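User: quick one
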Amino acid sequence: MILYLLAVLLAFTSGIPGLWLRRRGGEAAAVLMGLAALLGIVAALRVLLGGASWVVGLPALPMSATGGLAFDAIAAWFAIPVFLLSAGGALYAVGYWDERHGNVRLLRVVFGLAAGSLALLVAAAHVLTFILAWEGMAVSAFVLVMAEDRQPETRRAGWIYLISTHTGTLCLIAAFSLLMPFTGHGRLDLLPAGFASSSRGTLTFVLFLLAFGLKAGIMPLHFWLPPAHAAAPSHVSALMSGVLIKMGILGLIRLVSWVPDPPPWWGGLFLGLGALSGLLGVAFALGQHDLKRLLAYHSIENIGIILLGLGLGTLGKAAGHPVMMALGFGGALLHVLNHSLFKGLLFLSAGAVVRATGGRNMDRMGGLGRAMPWTSGAFLVGAWAIVGLPPLNGFISEWMIYLGAFRGFTLFRWPWTAGVVTALALIGALALACFAKAFGAVFLGEPRTPTAARALEAPLSLRVPMAVLALACAFIGLAPVLIAPALGRAVAVLGPGTAQTDLARLAHLSSLTAWATPMLLLAGLLWAWARPGKAPRDRPTWDCGYARPGARMQYTASSFAQGLVGGLRWILWPKVHGGRVQGLFPAGAQYGSHVPDPVLDRFADPLLRLVARGAALLRILQGGQLSVYLLYVLLTLLTLLIWMVA
Amino acid sequence: MPDALLTRILHLLMHLLTVVLLAPLIPGLITKVKARMAGRVGPPVFQLYYDLAKLARKQAVYSRTTTWVFLLGPVGTVAAMLAASLLVPFGHTPAPVAFEGDVILFAYLLGLSRFLTVLSALDTGSSFEGMGAAREVAFAALAEPALFLGFAALAKVSGSTSLTLMLGSLGVGSGAVTAPLILIIAGWSIVYLAENSRIPVDDPTTHLELTMIHEVMVLDHSGRPFALVLYGASLKLLVLSALLLDLMLPKAAHAWQDWARFFVGLGGLAGVVGLVESATARFQMTHVPRFLVAGILASAFAFLLLLV
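Assistant: Done. Structure below.
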């Protein structure tokens, strides 16, 4: 308990020494955050490996709170990625962020505040602590997104984020006040049976879903996510995508854990929203040219996959099937951890690319793999894992969700879980296309611009966090048996009755390890047999007889995705500019295409513009002349007088 | 029971030998049938073995654009396909490796080989290879649901998610599920043609790079890496053929009869592919998605039929 509170304190204050240090402030923050991570992860592992969970009361609070913080297995499960990515981000910032970009000291302090709030939030067990930690996280994340506020794009992204997160908070406060009478003095714990099915329970659920859905980026509440992730500094994007949006999932998971008897339609709704987020997320990712926006849409996709697992688990809880609960909740929780590992890794390596090339447009990169072998390796591991390919960690969690979905119609007569299987298969295939596009356009082939040709490898402080995350991905992928007991404890909090089911045996995790090891050995042997050795590398790529191929003739990210984007144009509505060539001897022409966001650009933006125009009409009333205002006062008084008399 | 153990070891040996040695024969058979249909003698059935032996001794040429990613495709494909081949039962003998959920692993191993092949293609920086890679991933996105819906239907029939149980106990005429089975076979035949880049989806023998899908992705491979590419492709053909054959072959009384039927079936399937390739032209590229959607629909109807 002390360990964890100390870790939170260290995280909160990690940026403070840097305020006075003339140099090495970043290193100081990284060391403090590293220490916090060490303590926090040890505290978390202790609970996950069977230690007792603990509760801290906050007697100073007005509502005589018992249990302001409760550190159970779920809190511990979420605390691990929080600390891992905070420490990685702090170290990464040393080499990534300097005075040229913006206020370094401010960013360090606020990064610490965000990390500390996240660490508190995972353990929050009282309405007040929950809302305080939630707001601490949301506001500090706003400052972090706004780090480069000299750019209008960043300011826009920041304001959109602030508005959406506070809309979410509003819903959250409303939901908690509905919940209040059913909790013991605001303590968040098991709710009475029957509450979830009551109309009040339904209203609470919808409000929670709005609040947590906005944070998690569930379609169609995802609109703040792509601009904010693209505009934020990359270590902040990693923290946001890796853990901040997961706090929405944490909220939903807590909600399911408080309710002993969730109605089945909750699970069905999770499944529907999950399939929607997953499919649309990956489809919109295919249409992006901006590397970080692409990754942001993939976060939406992965939130969808997590929701599919959560939905299966909730259905299992509603029907009382421990196997379904174990596979669904287990897959969802494992995917939460996995996604923060590989998405953190992807954002950090994307940041290294942005740092080296000065831009985010993939069509202006290319061939970076030779100049930046470490970064390219890290990105490949991340891409491999996020596509869900064996033998990395993404496969393990998707595997569990698949197993749950298959069980749904083979054992339990829920034929529509075949839809979950199909959705997952389609998501997987499209994600594969998208990451082949991203990795190919950025790291493979020839550099498309002089800037890309001059790129240099990232410094050590950027490579170390990437290496740690990549190793974590490989560890979970190759030895999932080792983490199964910890996962099982977290699942047991969610679904009582799953404590007897052995997750490792249920999901055949040891078979996966037993299978992966010989395949890797075989691949190593084949590699040794086929490797180039001293073969000369002085030939150009065979160009099918074309006389003078240039780097710009390569397939770009846009051309790679063009077939799929064209096939999906009834969802994506891509916009095309120019491209017309006229006359027999045409002059130079330009061509561009982009896929606007369906909610923000297609719906919210025009609507808000309309509202703003309507509001401008009201401005006539407010001319700024004192006499007119006096007239208003007089008229109001007169009206009131007449009304009172009448 | 030492007797049962001995049988298992024998089956394992048969399985491994079939995978490792027999795979390159199937493309040879298809080519032979096509040549005969066209009135030519054609290359010998064992041509691919000769090619592989020759390529293994040749020095490879590497483009200066390529990096270590270039080797991932060939190596990853062979490794993934060998691993996948262990999960598929041949005929009605159980697969060497079987556990609940191996069907998902199987599908994702196919995905792994595709991912790595596509990356190797993009590593060359050639626009032709990029074109092939883009087509490969786009068509695969349609083949995947067809495959998985077929798996869903079979899981519904057998109550299992292990390929050995899903495929091993079936076979046309084995029970009341004949109609869904025929639909799955139809859907998977489309997946089979698309995944193995066969006519009418792709033409493995075409000479125009612009119209290729799979072949254009491996244009720059030579020597040993190219040997791995060819071997990997033949392994994939064998593994997916086994998947289809398991649905079609009736169960025999003795294990050795099952093996014999399986080998005859492999030859027959190669013959059918040769006939299809001789009788049809390839589709216009824009028509391929429709063909693949037909596969999805067939598998989806199979699942729906099982519900009623």
